[in-house]
Design goal:
Length: 188
């Protein structure tokens, strides 16, 4: 995101670029927006016995927990609270795509009696840093993409293990009904 801001705005606003980046980073740290349909998918995955945690680069843990707690009150899908399963730079001291962000979660879960492994883990995200984090950590990744049905993009390295356009597709992945992604170009 910072690279995008520099690329698109530096030539027109060289004096203001650091201010833009600072404001953008603050807003990203204070904002947590779920992927549409993800809460229902989380509910269904939870019913299948899948352990779910939230990994974020957001630095403001209290703001994110406040949002998650609000969702708990408004939860018509009966999703188990994610507020207590929140991991990120505020807990591990590192940010995605550093593999230590994922490794610290493994240590915490295994230390609390929840047996998990890299082989049985999916890192789901909507940004290339999520795929890089999974790749760096040795876990499979799911890249969630959305578009207008007319955009085409090339899948870059590191490639996501799976690519989805609807969170409901996660059920098929978890149940082994989807093969890893092989396409070079994707229309979204």
């Amino acid at each position: 995101n910072e690279g995008f801001i520099r690329e698109k705005f530096h030539s027109r606003f060289p004096e203001e670029i650091q201010c833009f980046i600072s404001i953008f980073n603050r807003l990203m740290d204070e904002t947590f927006i779920p992927i549409p349909g993800m809460r229902i998918a989380i509910r269904n995955l939870t019913l299948l016995g899948v352990n779910i945690v939230l990994l974020t680069n957001g630095r403001d843990r209290l703001a994110i927990q406040k949002t998650l707690s609000y969702w708990d009150k408004e939860d018509k899908y009966h999703v188990k609270s994610l507020a207590g399963k929140l991991y990120g730079s505020h807990t591990s001291g590192v940010r995605k795509p550093n593999e230590e962000a994922v490794n610290s979660i493994f240590r915490d879960l295994n230390g609390s009696g929840i047996s998990t492994s890299h082989r049985r883990t999916l890192l789901i995200g909507d940004y290339t840093d999520d795929v890089k984090t999974a790749h760096n950590s040795g876990v499979d990744s799911v890249l969630f993409v959305r578009g207008n049905g007319q955009e085409t993009f090339r899948i870059r390295e590191p490639r996501p293990t799976f690519l989805i356009t609807d969170p409901k597709e996660l059920i098929g992945i978890v149940q082994g009904q989807r093969l890893p992604e092989t396409r070079e170009w994707v229309t979204i």
